[in-house]
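Reading is simple: each integer encodes one residue's backbone shape. The lines below illustrate:
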Amino acid sequence: MMRLTGKKVIALVDEEFEDLELWYPVHRVREEGAEVHLAGEKKGKTYIGKYGVPAEAEYSFDELDSSQYDGILVPGGWAPDKLRRYPKVIELVKEMHADQKPIGQICHAGWVLISAKILDGVTVTSTPGIRDDMENAGAIWKDEAVVVDGHIISARRPPDLPPYGKAFCDALADK
């Protein structure tokens, strides 16, 4: 049996997600046995990544109940600026945070956590382009490949995907 068998994870999608930042963690978590559900504003809609890779939403945000999931992945790219505008996305992230479930965020995904107002005093990383945003939200920002602060796992950019994927899986396995 793989160590994440029986675990369920939400992966958020919207237009112009960073292709690798969505698919690498999704495949990494699935390789360890977890079930991953892609969720977008509209169930059945195919969203296109920045470089043309598609992702079909298996669920709409409104269909999701955070109590049925063990963690959430937020991809980078330009999608986070859209994702943070959906009240249900913010609600899911806040609930995951309240329940101390693993929240994975990479690159610009920090914008979603900022909008959920869960970063005050949390040590994180992100693309350097949103460092000021992260710090203004109360986060302690570090320029490191991966930063784990409790249940919040953050990474900077695609080259950091291998240690990010491992750190998220480790957090999920420990939960």
Q: What stands out?
A: The first helix runs from residue 19 to 31. The domain at 8-174 is CATH 3.40.50.880 (Rossmann fold). The chain is about 30% helix and 20% strand. The radius of gyration is 14 Å.
